[in-house]
Amino acid sequence: MYSTSYGFGQPRAAQTTIPCRTCGTALRVERTCHEVFLRCTTCRTTHDVGEYVAQMDEALESFMENVYCDRT
After folding, report:
1. NCBIfam families, per this entry (predicted)?
2. How many domains does the chain have?
């Protein structure tokens, strides 16, 4: 069954195991109303999710399942 809540009530951030390309610290996935991005809490850089698709882990995959976006 599909939910029509489109992320409402879902977490706005999650910790991943994906290492930052700048410093190696595990990245945190975060979402705003208009975008999803990866943030490093150590070196304070932000990264586009598309840059890390090949390294996607279970935490990022599960987080993205609750984000409404056009995946075509």
Report:
1. CxxC_Se_CxxC
2. 1
